[in-house]
Write a structure and sequence with these properties.
This protein has about 250 residues and is of the alpha/beta class. About 40% of the residues lie in helices and about 20% in strands. α5 links the parallel β4 and β5.
Length: about 250
């Protein structure tokens, strides 16, 4: 798995930068109730999306467990970023009108950990509040390209952020489905050359970067045409869930 502390300095440029952040923030905001005033962005990363959420008129707090990520986010939103673990959020119960996790659940070790994070998000959510999260992240990157064909023999970790699984985690906390949205991962279309780089830096968590499978897949990718031409961008999926109002 990637070390997100070390990844911080190159994170934005390697993942679509400003256009992707605009698309993600707009999709999240579109799922929030009009009376939402406070929002917690869990695993806020470098704060690129968080800053845009704040620009939508919300009082936003970001939390991330990677020190370098939180440091960069603090530069974008001074005083609004907290260093903390998404499995044990450092906030009292019922603190926020809305909570979002963008590109977090797919990184977790399994269903138990994902359920714990969703439970924490539900805990800090006020009655009637909304929880918004990305789901099916890995599936979004499979766009049916020649790169996907080369990668098809790779082992795939069972996705902990499957929409059906996330709905079950949410239901266990009394959260009910409240809508969904999709947005484009601008600038994230894979090229054969960038995918080889991803192989060797551990982006594919089930493939040892220096192992024989990585070498075979890299060879197949190197044989593809248009080495620097991006294939289609992924389209990410958001699901929203509402907590029960009081009374």
């Amino acid at each position: 798995m990637l070390d997100y502390g070390k990844e911080a300095d190159r994170y934005d440029a390697s993942r679509g930068g400003e256009p992707r952040a605009d698309a993600a923030a707009a999709a999240v905001v579109g799922l929030l109730p009009p009376d939402a005033r406070t929002l917690l962005d869990v695993a806020c990363g470098t704060g690129l999306v968080t800053r845009r959420l704040a620009g939508a008129g919300l009082r936003v707090t970001g939390v991330d467990s990677a020190h370098n990520m939180a440091r960069m986010a603090s530069g974008r939103l001074p005083g609004a970023i907290v260093l903390g673990d998404s499995r044990r959020l450092p906030f009292p119960d019922a603190s926020f009108d809305a909570v979002c996790t963008v590109w977090l659940l797919h990184l977790l070790s399994g269903a138990e950990e994902a359920a714990a994070v969703v439970a924490e998000c539900a805990r800090v959510l006020r009655p009637g509040g909304v929880f918004v999260t990305t789901v099916d992240k890995a599936t979004a990157h499979d766009v049916g390209s020649d790169i996907d064909a080369v990668l098809s023999p790779r082992p795939i970790r069972p996705a902990v952020d499957r929409a059906q699984a996330v709905e079950a985690y949410a239901a266990a906390q009394g959260l009910t489905p409240a809508g969904g949205a999709r947005f484009r991962g601008h600038g994230q279309g894979r090229t054969p050359r960038s995918t080889v780089d991803d192989l060797h830096r551990g982006w594919f968590t089930r493939i040892p970067p220096d192992g024989p499978l990585a070498a075979r897949l890299a060879e197949g990718l190197a044989a593809l045409p248009d080495q620097e031409v991006p294939r289609p961008d992924p389209r990410f999926t958001l699901k929203s869930f509402r907590s029960l109002p009081v009374g």
